[in-house]
Amino acid sequence: MLVRLLWEPLPESWPVAEAPRPAGLRGMIAWARKVAEGLPQHDDLERRVRRAAIQAIVREAFQQTVAEQDSEHRGPAEFADAWKVRLAALLAQTSVEITGWGEITIAELDINLGWSLHAAASRARAETIARAAATPSRLRGADDGSTSSFDFSIAADGAGSLGRVQYATCEPCCIGLLRKISFSPEWHCCGLGTLALRELETRHPALTWYTTGQYAHARGFYDRYRDGSSSPWTASQHPCPHF
Ligand SMILES: [Zn+2]
Questions:
Q1: How do the pLDDT tens digits run along the chain, 243 residues long?
Q2: CB-based contacts of 8, cutoff 8 Å, min separation 6
């Protein structure tokens, strides 16, 4: 949904068609009439270009906010606010230079559409985060006699995979080793890393968990997580001789 709103051509009827459908046949007929009235009677190319231009600006503000995540580490609500500030700053200019578009004159745009798009896309992002769940673990191979490698995704219906978790287990030593956890930048700081670690502990409750070289880049994350876990989640000890 987030991708659809920011990257795919907006339906001509948007945002009308996004309104919730009323229950009951009578309500449905009235709703369908209203949607039909909102549809353009002719193909208005100029209007479509303007709609795509405001969408490009909302997307630009989104990408600027995503680019700050490595230093700002904003949670979902804070991210939505920062995105709004970025969008306001772009719309306050006379014209904006967007890659692939050249110069866009702000006065020619439907500013309200931009704000509707920001609100809907923010909501879609929050809903995706709320619906995110781990897919079943897949066995990737038995590494030797004792260790096995697995992976799973953190995914949300409609949004596909948000990230991937690769790990290995050693049953004889009761050790779990998180090898790699990777989310694309737009899903950083959304609590999905915590979700992934909890999932590992739930799926393999008998294991004590460690992590690898990624530890150094995400020290704060593991420091916070360790407080609520019985596992060390460090990279400082060699967990068992089989890895
Ligand atoms: Zn072992």
A1: 788 889 888 888 888 755 555 556 666 667 666 666 665 545 578 888 899 999 999 999 999 999 998 889 899 999 999 999 999 999 999 999 998 888 999 999 999 999 999 999 999 999 999 999 999 999 998 766 789 999 999 999 877 899 999 999 999 999 999 999 999 889 999 999 999 999 999 999 999 999 886 655 677 888 888 888 888 888 776 778 888
A2: none
CB 102: neighbour CB atoms within 10 A? 9
Instruction: Tell me the C-alpha distance between 89 and 67, whole Å.
Output: 16
C-alpha span between 59 and 55 (Å, rounded): 6
- 194 Cα–ligand 1 center, Å: 25
Distance 220 CA to ligand 1 centre (A): 27
CA neighbor of 202 nearest in space, from 228, 163, 236: 228
Backbone torsions φ then ψ of 83, nearest 5 degrees: -60, -40
Establish how many alpha carbons lie within 13 A of residue 55's alpha carbon, considering only the half-sphere containing its beta carbon: 22
Residues, beta carbon < 5 Å, ion ligand 1? 170, 173, 240, 242
Kindly give, in sequence order, each residue whose CB lies less than 8 Å from that of residue 1, ignoring residues fewer than 6 positions away: 124, 127, 128, 158, 159
Q: Which domains does the chain have, with CATH numbers?
A: 2-131 (no CATH), 134-226 (3.40.630.30)
Cα 232 to averaged position of ligand 1 atoms, centre (Å): 16
Distance 172 CA to ligand 1 centre (A): 6
How far apart CA 17 and CA 20 sit, in angstroms, is 8
Question: 212 is written with which tokens?
Answer: 């690898």
